[in-house]
Amino acid sequence: MANELTATEVKRALDACGVPEGAPLAIAASGGPDSLCLVLLASEIANVVCLTVDHGLRPEASAEAGALGALMADQGIDFHKLTWQGEKPSSNVQSEARIARYRLMNDWCRANGIEYLLTAHHQDDQAETLLLRLARGSGVYGLAAMAPTSRVPGSGGQVTLVRPLLDVPKARLVATLRARELNWLEDPSNKAEQFDRVKVRAFLENPPLEGLRADRLAATAARLRRTRDALEYYENQWLAENVETRDDGTLVFDPANFDSVPQEIALRATASMCRWASGERYVPRMEKLERAVLAMRESGFSGLTLYGVQFIPVPEGRVLVTRELRAAQGRMPLVNHTVWDNRFEISAKGDIAGLEIGPLGQEGWNSALKVWPEIRQSSLPHAAKVVLPTIFDGQQIVAIPHLEVAQGRGNDVSLSLKSHDWPKK
């Protein structure tokens, strides 16, 4: 029978993750045994707040959040329910819900000055993720274990995601709650057989081979994590030495320099360039990356589009990487301290009411030439010009910051690239 987990062990794990003693902690909780155990033990050693998200996907979810809130009140723990508003997806529901969940919790943490968000991912989760990604044909990067700490997506580095229970079997978390005679909530989706993770969980409960135990699979994932960290070290080194980043959101590099590193580094560097130029969290599939790198090394390379990003040949055998126009975010109201296309942070002052930001576009380019004919001298390829962020007042262009032209209220707006850890830390 599994032994209980202690608050002292949680404290030791938090110390190992670099969480300062006395720092306030937010803990993502669903009311299940994993997160509930983490909240209770962490509350014995730190000032914690419990965050739960009502995704609005099940009619019972609101009542379950209420039950969790009542339990937290009984334990004297601060509790907040966050609600996923708006239209819900009809496909890829679990993935989209995860993205929404982290966005809501990140926004709450930033608004309340909390720098550490804890989740209760544990040893069994590591094993399940390894098998799921193995089934999808993932390489080293996908098979590597979850990191104990990472940046919360969309936080700009201000909120750190901490997973202190990665070495702890789920059985110990359940045993801890049973010893305290505490009940937990069960999410019905955890038993819904249409989800792949549920199938993998059932597989691990009765594996066909002795070695396919959760602890051994988690150990394998940890070793692969070390391999991934080594690859990222050399990838970052190549990126820093060979890729020029520009304030207008473009990159420039010489694909001949791919020959100086193993193919895996070239592939991963290309994936990182896609992520940086698109502002997206994920990267293209490996087979698409392989085709792209091969194409860029061929003589007569004429360009390609990958993951909403264009790779365009420019003089001296180099390639310019830019956002694809049709993939960029459309127009949106111009609001100070917001982000456009998940790439540019907006800084605005004065009277900006009614102004919008969006890509320049071909029609916009034609109009801008009439006002500022000097922009024709820009060395940017045309495909990169038409995707530049532009400030509009109705149909009138009032500023194209990266071409250094503005008029009227456009003079009160500036843009800066959002941080995307380039190269990744």
Report on this model:
There is one protein chain. The protein has helices spanning 7-16, 33-43, 61-75, 93-111, 123-135, 140-143, 170-179, 196-205, 214-242, 263-278, 286-296, 361-371, 382-385; strands at residues 25-28, 48-54, 78-83, 116-118, 149-151, 160-162, 243-245, 251-253, 304-306, 309-314, 318-323, 332-333, 339-340, 344-348, 356-359, 389-393, 396-400, 405-406, 413-417. With 425 residues, it is an alpha+beta fold. The protein has 3 domains: 7-218, Rossmann fold; 246-325, no CATH class; 329-417, no CATH class. The strands form 4 sheets. Strands 3-2-1-4-6-5 form a 6-stranded mixed beta sheet, sandwiched between helices. Strands 7-8-11-10-9 form a 5-stranded antiparallel beta sheet. The protein has a 5-stranded antiparallel beta sheet with strand order 12-15-16-17-18, covered by helices on one side. Helix 2 (33-43) links the parallel strand 1 (25-28) and strand 2 (48-54). It is globular and about 75 Å long. The model has no long low-confidence stretch (mean pLDDT 90). Belongs to the tRNA(Ile)-lysidine synthase family. Its EC number is 6.3.4.19. It catalyses: cytidine(34) in tRNA(Ile2) + L-lysine + ATP = lysidine(34) in tRNA(Ile2) + AMP + diphosphate + H(+).
